[in-house]
Amino acid sequence: MGAGQLDRVICEKANLLLQGRKNIxxxxxxxxxxxxFSFAGVVRSVGIDISKEQLDRNTAVQERFRLxxxxxxxxxxxRRVT
Length: 82
Hints:
This protein is of the alpha/beta class. The protein has one domain (3-81). The chain has 2 helices and 4 strands, in the order αββαββ. The protein has helices spanning 3-18, 52-57; strands at 24-29, 43-49, 63-67, 78-81. It has a 4-stranded mixed β-sheet. The longest helix has 16 residues, at 3-18. The chain is globular.
Protein backbone atom coordinates (compact mmCIF):
# COMPACT_ATOMS: atom_id res chain seq x y z
CA MET A 1 0.00 0.00 0.00
CA GLY A 2 1.47 3.37 -1.04
CA ALA A 3 1.55 6.48 1.11
CA GLY A 4 -1.27 8.19 -0.83
CA GLN A 5 -3.49 5.14 -0.54
CA LEU A 6 -2.77 4.85 3.18
CA ASP A 7 -3.67 8.53 3.69
CA ARG A 8 -6.98 7.92 1.90
CA VAL A 9 -7.80 4.90 4.09
CA ILE A 10 -6.95 6.84 7.25
CA CYS A 11 -9.21 9.73 6.17
CA GLU A 12 -12.09 7.37 5.39
CA LYS A 13 -11.83 5.63 8.79
CA ALA A 14 -11.45 8.93 10.66
CA ASN A 15 -14.51 10.38 8.89
CA LEU A 16 -16.55 7.33 9.92
CA LEU A 17 -15.44 7.65 13.54
CA LEU A 18 -16.03 11.42 13.65
CA GLN A 19 -19.39 11.39 11.86
CA GLY A 20 -21.95 13.50 13.71
CA ARG A 21 -19.44 14.92 16.17
CA LYS A 22 -18.82 18.62 16.72
CA ASN A 23 -15.93 20.69 18.08
CA ILE A 24 -13.22 18.37 16.75
CA UNK A 25 -9.60 19.39 17.29
CA UNK A 26 -6.81 17.65 15.41
CA UNK A 27 -3.25 17.82 16.75
CA UNK A 28 -0.80 17.18 13.95
CA UNK A 29 2.60 16.49 15.50
CA UNK A 30 5.48 17.13 13.12
CA UNK A 31 3.08 18.74 10.65
CA UNK A 32 5.79 20.25 8.45
CA UNK A 33 4.77 22.43 5.53
CA UNK A 34 1.59 20.58 4.51
CA UNK A 35 -1.25 18.42 5.80
CA UNK A 36 -2.21 15.33 3.86
CA PHE A 37 -5.51 14.53 5.52
CA SER A 38 -8.97 15.88 4.75
CA PHE A 39 -12.06 15.51 6.85
CA ALA A 40 -15.74 15.70 5.96
CA GLY A 41 -16.68 17.84 8.96
CA VAL A 42 -15.28 21.02 10.43
CA VAL A 43 -11.99 20.27 12.16
CA ARG A 44 -9.82 22.77 14.04
CA SER A 45 -6.25 21.82 13.18
CA VAL A 46 -3.32 22.54 15.46
CA GLY A 47 0.14 21.94 14.03
CA ILE A 48 3.36 21.52 15.96
CA ASP A 49 6.82 21.31 14.43
CA ILE A 50 10.41 22.16 15.32
CA SER A 51 10.76 24.31 12.19
CA LYS A 52 9.19 27.78 12.16
CA GLU A 53 9.75 27.94 8.38
CA GLN A 54 7.78 24.71 7.81
CA LEU A 55 4.98 25.91 10.09
CA ASP A 56 4.77 29.21 8.19
CA ARG A 57 4.25 27.27 4.92
CA ASN A 58 1.45 25.08 6.28
CA THR A 59 -1.83 26.75 5.34
CA ALA A 60 -4.03 23.85 6.51
CA VAL A 61 -3.57 24.38 10.24
CA GLN A 62 -5.38 27.15 12.12
CA GLU A 63 -2.94 27.27 15.03
CA ARG A 64 0.81 26.74 14.96
CA PHE A 65 3.20 25.93 17.78
CA ARG A 66 6.93 25.60 17.47
CA LEU A 67 8.53 22.96 19.68
CA UNK A 68 11.96 23.55 21.06
CA UNK A 69 12.81 19.86 21.05
CA UNK A 70 11.49 16.68 19.48
CA UNK A 71 8.14 14.95 20.02
CA UNK A 72 8.59 12.22 22.61
CA UNK A 73 11.63 13.91 24.14
CA UNK A 74 11.48 16.23 27.14
CA UNK A 75 10.52 19.73 26.01
CA UNK A 76 12.12 22.69 27.76
CA UNK A 77 9.93 25.41 26.31
CA UNK A 78 7.56 26.14 23.46
CA ARG A 79 5.95 29.22 22.05
CA ARG A 80 3.01 29.98 19.85
CA VAL A 81 3.91 31.04 16.31
CA THR A 82 1.62 33.70 14.87
